[in-house]
Amino acid sequence: MRHKQNSPMGQMEANIMYAAVVRSFDSGPKYEIHDTPVPSGEHEALVDVLAAGLHLRVRAQANGSHYTSTDELPLIPGVDGVGRLPDGQLVYFVTTDTALGSFADKTVIDLRRSVPIPAHADPVLIAAAMNPAMSAWVTLRRRVQAQPGFKVLILGATGNSGQMAVQIAKLMGASQIIAAGRDPERLRSLTPLGADVTVSLAGDPQAAARRLGEAASEVDIVLDYLWGEPAGLAMIPLLTRRSDRSRLLTWIQIGSVAGADAAIPSAALRSANFQIIGSGQGSVTPAGYLAEFPALIDAIAGGKLIANPIAFPLSKIEEVWNTPAGSQQRVVFTPAN
Question: Which one of 40, 46, 63, 193 has the fewest CB atoms closer than 10 angstroms to its CB?
Fold first, then answer.
């Protein structure tokens, strides 16, 4: 084996790997041979990728639609993962702002954007849960100081991040969790996860907004993964039904599944103690995210948050990319071998 590594063939094999590569934003990634990246800075390290999640954020990265996109191609997608350092330590990492993502056998990470994970933790579970859980966890700890007993409305609770948000709100002491979404099967599944009330957003948008107003008028916080028309329509029905309009309602824009723009009624901002803020890259510093990772990893590894991952070898990327997993499953890619 040592002789093979020192031979020209062995060196060539050491310098190549397999990766999922995006060459056009109009088509999904392809499984290809790729040069192994080389660390270039004192804080960088090459890791063996053990698991990387197919999050909504990754899909947006791969089609160029995410607000952080630089339009750089070719691109290896993947925004985070679990990897093994050269010394054997397992870490959860967030990728750097380059075209070298985590959907590869190996990737270069910035050690300052990684944290060790416990030896007993399942890499697939961590890779499945961290990204979708991160938004609600960081929002409730960094963008708003959620007090025990707070009441929350989660718009888009049937998505992966929304499902995690229900569990995290419960874990952080919410006294009432109102979950809203379109998918009836997923809505039903949120009750055992901690939702006290579910609201269907299916059908007429105006009627859905009225249902939200009736169910969620007394919440303290809205975690909004939808934005777009659902958000614009829901604001006035929520605010006008509040028993005390001087009590603060904080609307936190996290995702934009229903549209990048929302028509915000001017009356919403004048007629109640109402504030709209955002949560994401930029509004929370990288150091702020990193500080929250250990506690979130402990919650996931300790079984306090349910993710239900389903793992595929990276070599299956092309057939899995456009095939949705089961309603409660999160796709994770692992090395082909």
Answer: 40
Rounded to a whole number of angstroms, the CA Rg of the chain reads: 21
* 13 vs 166, higher pLDDT: 166
Contact 235, 250 (CB under 8 A): no
Task: Characterize the bridge pairing of strands 106-110 and 44-53.
Answer: antiparallel
pTM of the model: 0.88
N-terminal to C-terminal alpha carbon distance within the chain? 18
Model pLDDT for residues 35-94, shown as the tens digit of each residue:
999 998 899 999 999 999 999 889 988 988 766 667 788 999 999 999 999 999 999 999
- Cα–Cα dist 155/222, whole Å: 7
Dist. CA 70–CA 52, nearest whole Å: 21
| Cα 254 versus chain centre, distance | 10
Compute CA distances 88 → 83, 116, 209, 255, whole Å: 9, 11, 52, 36
Task: Report how far residue 209's alpha carbon sits from residue 204's, in angstroms, rounded to the nearest whole number.
Answer: 9
Burial (CB count within 10 angstroms: exposed 0-12, middle 13-18, buried 19+), residue 313 = middle
Between strands 309-313 and 114-116, the pairing is unpaired
Tens-digit pLDDT profile for residues 297-307: 999 999 999 99
Place of tokens 């349910």: 306
Interstrand relation of 44-53 and 80-84 (parallel, antiparallel or unpaired): antiparallel
Q: Which two tokens stand for residue 313?
A: 């070898």
Q: How many CB atoms lie within 10 A of CB 276?
A: 17
Whether 49 contacts 81, CB under 8 Å: yes
CB 123 within 8 A of CB 51: yes
Q: Where are the beta strands (DSSP E) in 182-295?
A: 197-200, 221-224, 249-253, 274-278
